[in-house]
Structures are given as structure tokens and as C-alpha cells.
Amino acid sequence: TVTARRPVLELALARAAEAQEGLDVRRGTSATALEVVGGRVRGVVAGGERLRADLVVDATDLDRTALLGP
Predict the structure, then answer these.
(1) N or C: which end of the chain has fewer CB within 10 A?
(2) φ, ψ (nearest 5 deg) of residue 57
(3) Residue 70's pLDDT band (boundaries 50, 70, 90)?
(4) Please, what is the end-to-end C-alpha distance for the chain in angstroms?
């Protein structure tokens, strides 16, 4: 079992992700819509920009829920 405070875990994951070539981490960015193709999430719209992605991670605060629609 591994335990860590959320800010510590978030920082460790962000640093590991940022070290990967071709991967873009956008902390503090709010998605306003999901781009759904064939029933699968293929990206998001954030800050008026469409961002295509192989993987979209929802890091919403556990006390808040943000269900985005296509």
C-alpha cells in the first residue's frame, strides 16, 4: 500500500508526465466540453481550444462533480 497527500501525488504524476515526449500536462485548465467520437472521449474543449487526446484524465476535486457532455 502506498499513501500520499493529494498535492504530493499530483506533483509527482505531473512531473513524470511532463518528462514524457509528446505528452502535454495542462494544470489548472477547465474543460468546457468533451469531444466524443463513436461513443469514446477523444479530446476536450478548454479555453476555447479543441484538444485531441488519446487519453483524457479527469482530476476534478472529489467534493465536486463536473459531468461534461459532448
Answers:
(1) N
(2) -110, 125
(3) very low
(4) 37
Closest CA to 32 of 44, 20, 16, 17: 44
53 C-beta neighbours (distance < 10 Å), count = 13
CB atoms within 10 A of CB 23: 12
Which helix (H) or strand (E) is 13 found in, with range? Answer: helix 6-18
Cell of 48: 476555447
pTM check: above 0.90? no
Distance CA 24, CA 37 (A): 21
Q: Could you tell me the three cell numbers for 63?
A: 467534493
pLDDT, tens digit, for every residue of 1-60? 778 888 888 888 888 988 989 888 777 788 888 899 999 999 999 888 999 988 887 777
Element (DSSP H or E) covering residue 33 = strand 31-37
